[in-house]
Amino acid sequence: MTAWPFTGRADELAVVSDALRPGGDHCGVIIAGGAGVGKTRLAAEVCEAVRKDGWIVHSVVGTLAAQSIPLGVLSQWTDGTDRQLLSLVATVMAALTAAPNGEQILIAVDNAELLDDQSAYVIHQLVRRRAAHVIMTVRTGQTAVETVKPLWKDGLLLRLDLQPLSRHQCDALLQLALGGQLGEQTAQRMWDLTRGNVLFLYQLVLQELQAERLRKAGPTWRWSGEMEASPTLVELIDSYVGAAPDEILEVLDLVAVAEPLELALLSALVDSAKIEVAEQAGFIEVDLNRSAPVLRFSHPLYGEVRRARMGNMRALRLRGVVAGAMRNRVSSPPAEQLRLALLWLESDLPGDVGLLYSGAAEAFLRLDLGLTNRLCVGALAAGAGPEVRLLHALSLYSMGCGLESEAILDAIPTSSVHDFIWLTAAMIKAANRQFLLGRPDDSWTVLEEALHAAPAELANQLMPLRVAQLAMAARPAEAASLAASMDISMLGALPAAVLACGEAIALGDLGQPDEATAAVNALSRLAAEAPEAAYQMVALNLLHADALILSGQIQQAQSLGEYLYEQWADVPQDPSAVAVAIKGIAALARGDVALAQQQLSAAIIECEPRHSHTGGMYLFWLAYAESLARAGQADAATEALQRVEEYRHPSYVFVESSRLLVTGWVAAASGRPAEATDLARQAADFASAHRQFAREVVALQAAIQFGDTDSADRLDELSSFVNGPRAQLAARWAKAAVNSDGSELLCVSEDLEAMGDRMGAADAAAHAARAFEVANLHRDRLRAFGRAARIMTECGGVTPATRSGVGTLPLSGQEREIAALVREGLSNKLIAEALFMSVRTVEGHIYRSCTKLGLKNRFELAGALEQFSALSVQGD
Q1: What dihedral do alpha carbons 196, 202, 206, 211 form, nearest 10°?
Q2: Tens digit of each residue's pLDDT (9 = 90 or more) over 556-598
Q3: Is residue 102 part of a domain?
Q4: pLDDT tens, 749-761?
Q5: Are 54 and 24 part of one and the same domain?
Q6: How many whole angstroms separate alpha carbon 343 and alpha carbon 319?
């Protein structure tokens, strides 16, 4: 990255340009702002602009070295022959204002707060005399010489207080600088660290590019790994923060190791007067919007630099000081207990098993697996027992580290089959074989052995895993029946979470979405406060979203994705990525194929390195391949389908009909509608054979979209017991297609759009257009085509129905030519002149065209042509 674009300062440029306007109210401008906000760059852009307009520009920079030398920054304009100060001043002023051809003069002064008194006097006189325009930059918080201050206080120069870039401006700048979009988490992370400080942002991007932690993945830039401040960035920020007096460096370093730090806690460790000095200097700020005031750095990178500067020994000691003070308090909320555990772990204090274990449990509850593992390792090093080993194994399993998890479980001493540790270990081992290792038969064997060994009360706790196994094996009726026989009030948190996953699949497949939602909600409440069940909620919500979409509750799935993204946006790795994936899957169901591709791609990039074998990638790639196919990107969809086969998981039998159906969408995108229809029928047959009735409805709906007309009876039967809006609409669609009922097909289209399935709505409208064409109802046909065109244009996709249903207008060549000119807005007279015919002849052609199409006048003809052309372009 050799060039850094200039953007986001259009308003400021306008203000500065007005202040430099000859004959204006001001003789220039002072740009004030903090270090790195872009003062110098803004001034440089202005100088370059006026130089191109023929101005003479003189530029100087105030420095500490030159501050003690009279006329130090203006020495190049002295002739060296006279050492008398007054004569030197006159010489400099004459040289600065010399304009042989009457040019406008601009004097640019960077870091004006560092000018020596004599140089500041010269600038002041030039402004007062309006002998030149001046643009100055001043760093806020620094003391400017007395001759500079009056320039803005007396209104001679306009003062512009330059603020950091906004989040939106920051994103735009990064997009221009990198030449591509940023992932949402990457953009948020950049913003959190720099807060729109342009200089800090530039150095941060530069160092992360060099370290290859900021890389382009497809069309999107992703930032992975932990930031390590480069020497350049450290020195840049330390030139400001490191200049703080020694007496407040201790305050800054205590805040650095424990930010945000309660004011009361810090006040117990250092003199409050030092805290006040640090705040007045602008290094830290007090957040009063909490139950107790807390301190944090006024800029996030200040803390990064102080941590980089203090050294390991000092950091260990200071963390211990803060942790000890926190430990001595009577009580604290769970979040503070987690912070205490982390500080303790990274301090010079001896390990504390109870404190570290409670912190690990809280971290797991918050879905932070990396921190959970660190705290577990620390607790084990301090002598922790089987409970910590179990949590460690569970967190590794949740991260997709199946072999490592089993190794830890095998190392737990054999205990009674009557305890919680044995029960949880058995469940993790069975789940590990099922999901991570891809050995479902082994999983069933592990569970059978555990059920045989366990007493009745523990066997009941193991049975939820059997429900999940049955559901994943595409045996939803058996899974639902077994789940219904269980008393959920007697289940522990982890068994309850596993049961919820099994019921979400089974009830969703059976076409009972409301029951699936009720089960998910009930079991989620039961498991919500238990650390061992926390991570199961991530997978559960993905399965719940699938059940909602199968039934046609697309808006609810979209709302679920938005809610989870708000909850998990700051949770590292899997949770936030799964929330993005749910949003992408909902966008695909809604027909927003571009957004679906973007979000599913982001989720895949985030999760793929850790979950190449867990089955999650199988689900994500299925949805991504379908999004490409629905967008008409046949080659890319074919390549994605190959990845689907690579990730195909032996435990995920329940999505086999989805795999067949996605293959059908790829065939449709490749121009093979007959093959697509056959694959949709195969998907429906598989779902029917396994009593996955909601999936059968989805497959049969796709078959209708591909051109099949043989599913009306079966869909009518399914609609009698499959709940949710999709089954009813698909049955109506099939019946209307068989009867070539254009009016009913349009009604179905409207209802599908209301349900959220917009691409289905476009296809139904295209089918209606075809029915109207057969009935010679040309006006209705154009109306249906117009509806299909509008929806498909909004979706950005293409389907066999909209591609092949364009047809032709029943107009002669002359009528078509005149209708096209009507569409362009030409009057009858202008059309007659263009085509060398009489106005009466033009009117006759327009009349006959309207008659053929069932339209009333030329305005309806223009509208009809507009709609028809839109769908024609979409179908090309």
Answers
A1: -30
A2: 999 999 998 888 876 766 788 889 999 999 999 999 999 999 8
A3: yes
A4: 999 999 999 999 9
A5: yes
A6: 6
